[in-house]
Design goal:
Blueprint (H helix, E strand, L loop, with lengths): L8 E5 L9 E3 L11 E5 L5 H15 L32 H14 L4
Parallel strand pairs: 1-3
Antiparallel strand pairs: 2-3
Length: 111
């Protein structure tokens, strides 16, 4: 397969990960040629659940860490919650938005 230029890539796999994690990504590496990537375990037939994990791992790559107890969302659990939820995740918390803005200003990723 020929190499394609990209700013970010995700690999979905049915291979079972060791431990409790269902996704892995480098933090704060969006647009980095070698590290702007995530690997997600596609272990559930619910598309919305796998999509939530994909959004969560993208968040890490965008410089966002897990939400802490005072970070809230209006529509249920937040995308960057450290705990996996059965509910679909619809939004990033205000904490996540602020952290991403700080990442953009300090690291200035170039895509």
């Amino acid at each position: 397969m020929p190499r394609k230029r990209n700013d970010y890539a995700q690999l979905l796999t049915r291979i079972e990960f060791k431990g409790t994690g269902v996704g892995m990504a480098y933090g704060g590496t969006i647009c980095s040629p070698q590290k702007s990537v995530a690997v997600i375990q596609d272990f559930d037939d619910k598309t919305s659940f796998v999509a939530s994990i994909m959004a969560h791992e993208l968040g890490h790559t965008l410089g966002i860490s897990h939400d802490i107890f005072f970070c809230n969302c209006t529509a249920g659990p937040c995308v960057m919650s450290p705990i996996i939820s059965d509910e679909p995740l619809y939004e990033f918390s205000s904490c996540s938005v602020k952290e991403h803005q700080m990442y953009l200003l300090s690291d200035r990723p170039h895509c």
